[in-house]
């Protein structure tokens, strides 16, 4: 017996309770609230033949961008495939997407989820997984356009409309439409203040526009609503730490690292990326972050041989530089070089195009070879999106290069990079300080 969920999507299972659990898990996931996996596990325990429970659980494991969850993804895929004969077309589409991701073809998986969303525009899980895939692939325009495709089907009468607005807001921000992005993101938050992705989209707008004081206040004032039980709070607090850092308040940034960003001590890749990204920015500016690099490096060392997502590898190298672990740096370089030689898989492309030179550039910066860091990383600026992340996350390239140019004594390049940053954020105290330091670099002596 086929039923439909509250969004009108067909479910090849006759149990009303099973469908209700799918709906609950889907909304928890869309809101980034705990715990969609627990809800799905209960559904599977009660209804082991519930295909979509296995498919959504697998999608969650895939979009952690962490090989540590690959075993769970494989288990979910195997269970879903065993039920494929009784599945409907929508469910088989989800299974195909999982199979592609598990096989290393992140581009194909993202497109398959996107195709499901086109056929079933109220399939919130498919929309979200495609959106996350576009994020990991650095497909800025698709972050916007893939959501625009389904928006007409999510009017005010449809439950969960705010989640789709949140995704659209983030896509608008990543494509530079900041006014529309902020308006849309705030509209989503007005529908549900717990919507972590909506908060995230507005935080990105404030970051890109250099509204640091406003951004810190926005996140701090609203945290009591969105942070409790949030699976995403560490990342929004990372944004708040960036706002504090831009204003020169390193103490507040480190406090957030200790109490909010790494406090869960879970150590999944997404959390480790944020931890490394914040500590690296602080360290590049010359701030002593104390013992904090050790924990980061310990956890990244278990992932040296993953060769799963090049974006992660760059942040692992930051930790190995920060913790002064030459052996780990050497091992990671060898692993990333091996990843670049793979004959297929999305990560192989990412590693060849951006990941390997980025990892080498961070390592060169760490050993004080700033000229090598510049030579390796400067050409990546225009194509860094090819290994995923957001504009705010990839700003680490500009951040590192500006400091490298100053330390290398290259006044012309340092002034150029500082000018770039100031053109985007003219009121940033951090950018103004970089300009002053760039102008203080000794001019080359005449021959």
Describe the overall structure.
The longest helix is centred in the last third of the chain and has 21 residues, at 346-366. The chain is built from 23 helices and two strands. It is mainly α and 447 residues long. The N and C termini lie far apart (86 Å). Helix content is 70%, strand content 1%. The protein has a domain at 1-135: Serine Threonine Protein Phosphatase 5, Tetratricopeptide repeat (Alpha Horseshoe). Belongs to the TTC38 family. This is Tetratricopeptide repeat protein 38. It comes from Hypericibacter adhaerens.
Question: What would you say about this model in short?
Answer:
Helices cover 70% and strands 1% of the residues. It is mostly helical and 447 residues long. Belongs to the TTC38 family.
